[in-house]
Known about the structure:
- It is a single chain.
- It contains 13 helices and no strands.
- It has helices at 2-17, 23-45, 52-60, 66-94, 98-118, 122-138, 146-171, 193-216, 221-232, 241-270, 278-296, 303-317, 328-351.
- Helix 5 runs antiparallel to helix 8 (193-216), helix 6 (122-138) packs antiparallel against helix 9 (221-232) and helix 8 crosses helix 13.
- The protein starts with a helix and ends in a 12-residue tail after the last helix.
Amino acid sequence: MTNRATELLQLLQAEMAEISFSGPRFVQANMAAISVGLAVVLALLLQLDDPWWAGISAFMCTQASQPQSLQKGALRIVGTLGGAAIGFVFAPWFAYDPVATMLLLYFAGTFGILGSLLSPHGYAWLLGGITIIMVTLGALDEPTQALNVAFYRAAEIILGTVTALLTALVLAPPASAAGAVAPGWRSLLGRNWHILSHATRTGVAVAAVPLVWRQLELPNLTQMAISIGAIMAVPTLTGVSQRDQDAIALRTLHRIVGCVLGGGAGVLFLATPASQIFLPWLLGLMAGNWLSMQLQNGRHGISVVGVQASVALILTLVQGAAPATSLLPAIDRVVGMLGAIGLLVLVNLLLGPPRSAEPAAPN
């Protein structure tokens, strides 16, 4: 792990030295800064509950081209609406039963990751699972708030997504690259068993979040559950247990570093007087996301660091309708993200190493 951390620091230095001020990387960084800033401002003007979700959605849907942005944005909206509807229907029924709540979270986590790896519309599956988790945990203490949570989470995410799409239509090029072909929903008990095992571990970890939260009184349980899904949402799995575990461990390290970079920068900025003035605060938010997008699109393979840095920065700087008066909410959110990593490690230790995939049958 020490060698990986040292290598990652070297890659970060290389990325920072290669920051682009022209070309596609520069354009996409500008798009991210504009869409995140605009989405957060609109969410504040509309007095949405959690405007940071608008900013995160804007960053996530800022892609290199118009077709890519439109595709990702459409899948994010469909997944969010579907997850919000399911969460609204089931969360109030299950909220008074801890076992039923854990089962709902388990299935949301499992099928969210399973669909993200198997379906050609994987991003919609992932967002659907995450939204069910958000609504369920958001209404855990007050089940009557399920509709309120579902409505505002959907509104915030859709607002940020639409903002990114409009920015892409104005600034992004029309070209598009073909995406990878999804394996489809087959052979889950055969050669794709490793995918089912991976998704199941995600569901177990997500289901354990309320239990761990209540026992240890950890902050921000929703952020913990979402972070678990984000860590386990690897683009592909090879089926070779050791190789996949190494990839997840590396992804976890990248998320930790991104969390520390984005969250740390946000906390330092909040400690300055400039953070209490709207325009410097907004410019700081946009500049941080500009840099995060540069890291995401660099050539050294540390895109996860850039994504997580943006998420941590937005969660730190955007705390409501007024300038932040305390660093505690920001620290709580960062701790929630790091707590998710610890819970995943515990689940993997309890369940043991996953079994490698079965080889394909010869023709």
